Amino acid sequence: MTDTPLIPLVVGNRTLTEGSDGVGRSFDPATGALVAEYVRAGEAEVNMAVAAAREAFDNGPWRRMRPFERGRILQRIGELMLARRDEIAIKESTDSGKPLRDSYWEVDCSARFFEFYGGAADKLHGSSIPLGPDWSDWTVKEPVGVSLHIIPWNYPFQLIARGVAPALAAGCAVIIKPSADTPVTAYEFVKICREAGLPEGLVNLVNGRGSLAGDLLARHQGVDQITFTGSVPTGERVLIAAASHAVPCNMELGGKSPQILFADADLDKSLPIIAGGFLTHCGQVCNAGTRLFVERSIHDTVVEKLHARISAMKLGAGVDDPDMGPLINKGHRQDVEAYYEVARKDGELLLGAELPTAPALADGAFVRPGLVVGADNRTRIAREEIFGPILTVIPFDTAAEAVDGANDSPFGLVAGIHTTNINKALGVGEKLRVGQVWINSFGVGLDVEFPFGGYKLSGYGREKGLEALAAYQQVKNIAIHHPMP
Ligand SMILES: NC(=O)c1ccc[n+]([C@@H]2O[C@H](COP(=O)([O-])OP(=O)(O)OC[C@H]3O[C@@H](n4cnc5c(N)ncnc54)[C@H](O)[C@@H]3O)[C@@H](O)[C@H]2O)c1
């Protein structure tokens, strides 16, 4: 007998405790302790999940319900999330390693997605188009069909909600493929959907290996649309799979986001924002602000202040709500450690050289935050997505130089600008090739209303806000010729 929970697959109204690719294991990144086992889907279960989603979409009650009734069920999902926020947050911190306050944010933000898109479900209007005498013409927004959501490990609960809420609001059925590193809270998500009264088959859960279950799903002829959130190399594989049956994709990929700090900024306000921008969830955030462009006159002061702030940070297990938790696993820690070597070659590594030695941290995937100076924006440390807590500080003399440096990147997800001069802020913001510009701020609270997504290698399509609904809708035009008899 074991007390380790087993995360099943959920296909239609069935909960499968066995799959044709065996069982996977998920561990607490802070201690290495086993958190859960999960059933891994193979081809048979992938086919079952797609068939269940197809049946729910093609013949189920969801599309026949009035939109406001669908909206009420979605809002009920949000309410149930809030009612269970303690339980979900603790599970999320144990499975992903993130500090408890960030897991609470995940749950609260997920509930906001369901409130927001629940409210939008009955407002998905088409338009009427003037063709001239004897014609009537209008558009209707129809759901795209079966929508596949491939999820990374950094925000396992919130990133499901971010894509699934608008997909359901638009009338789609969904299949969720969580990361093999963080399968736990996806099951809580599906249980809440069932409890809220979502018709069976609309939300299906397929855990498994990316290279097997993920690939089979992305290639499946029964899938009509894919929302992928993850790394660029995997995203490229998913795009090739999607091309094999010509389905549209929303791609939310990586980043190397710039923060631009001018000498006139209020440092007491800006520096905590800048530090949080690259340290949140141990730097494992797609929009982490890992390149700091600093006006040269304040470079040394800023480095000194950041050094003091970062050195004082307390590391610990996610459930203890430390300043910073661990990386996702020791394999990823090796990758991040390799970047500390890269930092030494490309510039000067002021902080982060040694792994933490405290006995309480010995079994976890902990690293210290890294601070790099003297590296050019063209070096690897300033160019590659590390997905760890390393900040590269680069001085500039003019606003034009800061803009050029910020834009000189393969990525274009978000950017931060810190200044008390609004003309400078808006002028610089206009020139940045990114999907979102933060001025005297960086990152989100519970703001789900605005669009989010990347330029360049950071992807395409938009999540959040009303813009996200477009990915889950098709536009049908109806034209009637009605000449007077
Ligand atoms: N832009 C955003 O909104 C956003 C948000 C969070 C994370 N990210 C990015 O995610 C990355 C980190 O997450 P990760 O390491 O889990 O990413 P990853 O690319 O390794 O995996 C993402 C998902 O793809 C699946 N997968 C792997 N191979 C597959 C295949 N061949 N076919 C289909 N699916 C496959 C994985 O199992 C996982 O569920 C970073 O690059 C980060 O920037 C982006």
Automatic annotation (TrEMBL):
PROSITE patterns: ALDEHYDE_DEHYDR_CYS, ALDEHYDE_DEHYDR_GLU. It comes from the Bacteria. GO terms for molecular function: oxidoreductase activity, acting on the aldehyde or oxo group of donors, NAD or NADP as acceptor. The keyword Oxidoreductase applies. Gene3D superfamilies: Aldehyde Dehydrogenase, Chain A, domain 1 (3.40.605.10), Aldehyde Dehydrogenase, Chain A, domain 2 (3.40.309.10). Residues 25-478 form the Aldehyde dehydrogenase domain. Keywords: Oxidoreductase. InterPro entries: Ald_DH/histidinol_DH, Ald_DH_C, Ald_DH_CS_CYS, Ald_DH_CS_GLU, Ald_DH_N, Aldehyde_DH_dom. It holds the Pfam family Aldedh. The active site is at E252. Belongs to the aldehyde dehydrogenase family. This is Aldehyde dehydrogenase (NAD+)/betaine-aldehyde dehydrogenase.
